[in-house]
Amino acid sequence: MKPTKICLLFLIIAFSGCKLYVNHKFHLERKFDFKDKASFLKYLKSKKIFDDNHILYVEADGYQNFINEKLQQDSSIVYQGCYLNDSVYINRSSLLNENTSCMGRIDLEIAANFKRTTIPDSLLIIGKSISSYHLKHLNDNTPFYMNPNKKINLLLVYAYSLGTYYDELYRKIMILTKENESIADTYLICVDPVYLLK
Predict the structure, then answer these.
(1) Are 84 and 124 in contact (CB under 8 A)?
(2) Which of 20, 76, 96, 186 keeps 20 to 30 A from 6, CA to CA?
(3) What is the pLDDT of residue 118?
(4) R_g over Cα of the chain
């Protein structure tokens, strides 16, 4: 066998093996097959990544728009934004825009926003209102409204298919939120089709 073919074969095996290892280690590409909302909430509570009163899901009538507009259009994987109200949020930094899936950059972005004593208008964006996507609390199916008593309402995204990859980031952000509880509140939006569950 020629050396170039051997190198090519080695690279194919290395990359496919690496993908298999990462998928196995972080439980990636899992199928969302919960029977009801209660079992999904129980699963999330067992992970201890988030307060169950702050776990949300998107109702059927807003689901596809949320996926198209909030995830695909702005390339968000985990970080949705630091909102000041239902439709005004802090613009993402250029550092985060370069790689929106990087845990270190997401963590830095949130910490920097929590530390701001004032937020200049030049950093603010007016977008589509979050309430138009019909978010609900997973624990009791009540509609979600941003906490008006907090300066910042941080919205993060959770997908079951991403496995445990971002779990440590979620835990870090919950600690950061507790350290800044006088100014910030954090919510986790499940982007799995939770609305199909009873």
Answers:
(1) yes
(2) 20
(3) 92
(4) 19
d(Cα 126, Cα 142) in Å, to the nearest integer?
25
What stretches in the chain show pLDDT beneath 70? 1-29, 74-75
Secondary structure, 3-state, the chain: CCHHHHHHHHHHHHHHHHHHHHHHHHCCCCCCCCCCHHHHHHHHHHHCCCCHHHEEEECHHHHHHHHHHHHHCCCCCCEEEEECCCCEEECCCHHHHHCCCCHHHHHHHHHHHHHCCCCCHHHEEECCCHHHHCEEECCCCCECCCCCCCCEEEEEEECHHHCCCCHHHHHHHHHHHHHCCCCEEEEEEECCCHHHCC
The answer to whether residues 65 and 133 touch, using CB atoms and an 8 Å cutoff, is: yes
The reported pLDDT for the residue numbered 25 is 47
What are the Cα distances from residue 68, in Å, to 44, 76, 140? Answer: 25, 11, 26
Q: What is the pLDDT of residue 30?
A: 72
pLDDT tens track for 121-158: 999 999 999 999 999 999 999 999 998 889 999 999 99
Cα dihedral 17→105→188→155 (10° resolution): -150
